[in-house]
Design a protein that fits this description.
heterodimer; A: 343 residues; alpha/beta; Rossmann fold; 12 strands; 29% helix; B: 345 residues; 2 domains; eight-stranded mixed beta sheet; 13 helices; globular; Dipeptide ABC transporter ATP-binding protein (chain A)
Amino acid sequence: MTAPASSTKVRGETILSVDNVVKHFPISQGVLFKKQVGAVKAVDGVSFELRRGETLGVVGESGCGKSTLARLLMRLETPTSGRATLEGRDLFKASGAELRRLRRNMQMVMQDPYTSLNPRMTVGDIIGEPFEIHPDAAPRGSRRKRVQELLDVVGLNPEHINRYPHQFSGGQRQRIGIARALALRPEIIVCDEPVSALDVSIQAQVINLLEQLQDEFGLSYIFIAHDLSVVRHISDRVAVMYLGKIVEIGTEDEIYERATHPYTQALLSAVPVPDPEVRHERNIIRLTGDVPSPADPPSGCRFRTRCWKAQEVCATEEPLTVARAADPHPSACHFAEVRPAAA
Amino acid sequence: MTNSTVQPTPASATPEGGHLLEVRDLYVEFRTSEGVAKVINGVSYHLDAGETLAVLGESGSGKSVTAQAIMGILDSPPAHVRSGQILYQGRDLLTQPEEQRRQVRGKEIAMIFQDALSALNPVFPVGWQISETLRTREGMSRADARRRAIELMDLVKIPAAERRIGDYPHQFSGGMRQRVMIAMALALNPKVLIADEPTTALDVTVQAQIMDLLADLRRDLGMAMILITHDLGVVAGVADRIAVMYAGRIVEHADVRSLYRAPAHPYTKGLLESIPRLDVRGQELATIRGLPPNLMRIPSGCPFHPRCPYVQQVCVDVVPHDLVLGDGRTSACHFAQEVRDDSAR
């Protein structure tokens, strides 16, 4: 497989910029006369930039809006407001041929390798389907060869092109999903929990494959996951989401070694470490309660209902995700500071 | 113990009067139209009062099926217990008539499941479900059972239990539902609690809460616990001993600290090296090559040999027996000593 044309482009320049994206799902009541009684604020003002060749990890608990964010970027949902600029064009305003062209540059790998592949299509048809939509990506005669190349790239046997998804294991199916995402030689791949359905021994294989493909093709990843250890391993920068907002964003080092937002600190401390010796030395922050409903988020700072630092100002004034004195990376906390034990 | 030469029971000595629960050389197979899947192939483990045993394995390793066999809730057909014993306080559960087994289930050994939403009945209030066993098994009056249900909900730290007793499962969050299920399991004061992936469906912050709760309950109520999980991180915090399963066998059995310090089976070693760690930077992820075996065609000799970096001809030919290592652990590997020395380095 040849490297995409993008390889000549500068690594590190901004490739996708997302500005204040909002997605509210309406809650309606009534059968005959439907009226909107509220909104689930799934994504509520998210901004970030993705640079060429980097992996941006997005972490957060269920319901924080990370998957909705992925679907918005893929234009599978229509945003309520906000902008996303890809190749200098507004992704959310594009339509028709322009949208098709932009979509070609951004592909997705889904979480569940069991439901995201059509059971009645052969692997060859699944991986080759993007060529039906974008016929100019590969001439008709060479498509089969191209699909076999793709199978080879993701470490599957090219001779298995006529098999069906049920003949493959979970890890192999995820490789098929990755091959499909690579078919159009995109520059960006959005991975939504790509390894969380896989067994531990298979997880490492898929992570290594993603890293190897990134090096080979200069891909940029948006890597969405709830597993903080996996995200640390693969990401260059990490965004932490809570109730539809990014509460902290920074380099892998800034987030994992010098986190200043209490939520990030609690999240990190709660991750079970597979080493009984280290465990007793760790200082675990126990959060009480559950994540509030995104239909009715708390006023001010959304984390204040579970935060041990909460003061009056947290209820009245919403903290912005800006660089704070504690450490020069953006954090949305009035009382941002590096946790002494972690430093 | 007279039969100690037959069944090496590692990592801890047998207490007076035998183990609380002991699985001996259990074989279970699933007979399907496509063939016979050998799901459990000679599993032995034991549990003593007040301790926590973690059973670790990936999907298809047989960890849940063993637990279902203990509970007597295997779906048969297709499941079929070919041989083996499950001794609870010295009596073999497998030979008991169903009527007697029912007395053990719930009252002596209780189980909680991974997915609380599908384990709870959506059309009954949670209080009703928690108190159901109390009414039918203990013959409690409705009022008494209700009072006890509130106590149980308090015990598992569901806030405002009295107010929430009439709520339905869908009105609870994932973590709270798991607490409801724990309350149900505790209703009859069991001596053994089997927790099958209790936190897998939960977020990390909630997972930590539930694991704490289980640890507290185990200590306060003096229960023994079997924790079934695939998560090496969860195990490290709560278990006393670990049994690692692969292809229906226990491949390594050890106390938690020595297992993490120096795994003595190539599979355990591979697992520990393949998980990204939060507290380690710039780590290279090792992988275990290949795939878990098809249980209808388990490889000859050691079932792990096609994936094993230590493989030799003997591994293809001979099924390895549990090798008892110096410090009372066992590993079903021909090269256990070597693997452990490598890991310790």
